[in-house]
């Protein structure tokens, strides 16, 4: 996508620079929004604080059905931060002159690896190494030699699933927007921007709920059986 015009591309045409600068821009935006939301906390929230609190309540409500309210609140910082970064990364690419960091496999793969390492770490911490990996063997001992490698492959495939799903959808949206703006650069693309905004929100939701599901599968082994 190096042929697409970006404002930051005026500094350098190197795509590594464009990707890293947009990633840094998203991180700065996330920090600024967080600072605005917590600058003057009020009992009755308003403005940015109100929006961020509603978002956090929504994340807890999302996780409550999967993990229960207590654990949903425990993992709130992780899931909320991921959601914040993914949505801003998706959204910034809708604005002409900017590029989505999530349209780069390096970004989505890093997120997927972080989720993979963390949920396995939490599973081991909550259940112990032996109990956690015994879960991979299934409830029937005779089938354990077959089930264990299948479970390992299944867990490793989650890295590909998380990273390529997000990357593929956002990359496709970027290409769709590029073609649309070339064909009809004025009023015609406006309805498409609404669709792209919805897709940015949807892909964020999918990434967050899958993270909750993977965490639930790792820490609630006894409930699974």
Care to give the gist of this entry?
With 225 residues, the protein is mainly α. The chain has helices at residues 15-38, 47-67, 69-74, 76-92, 105-127, 129-134, 144-183, 190-219, 221-224.
Descriptive report:
- There is one protein chain.
- The chain is mainly α and 225 residues long.
- The chain has one domain (8-224).
- The chain is built from nine helices and no strands.
- Helix 5 packs parallel to helix 8.
- The chain is globular.
- The N and C termini lie far apart (47 Å).
Strand content: under 5%
Q: From the alpha carbons, calculate the radius of gyration and give it in angstroms.
A: 20 Å
Major sheet details: none
* Number of self-contained structural domains: 1
The helix content is over 70%
Low-confidence stretches: none
Helix tally equals 9
* Number of DSSP strand runs: 0
Oligomer: single chain
Shape: globular
* SSE topology string: HHHHHHHHH
End-to-end Cα distance:
47 Å
Mean residue pLDDT: 90
Structural class: mainly alpha
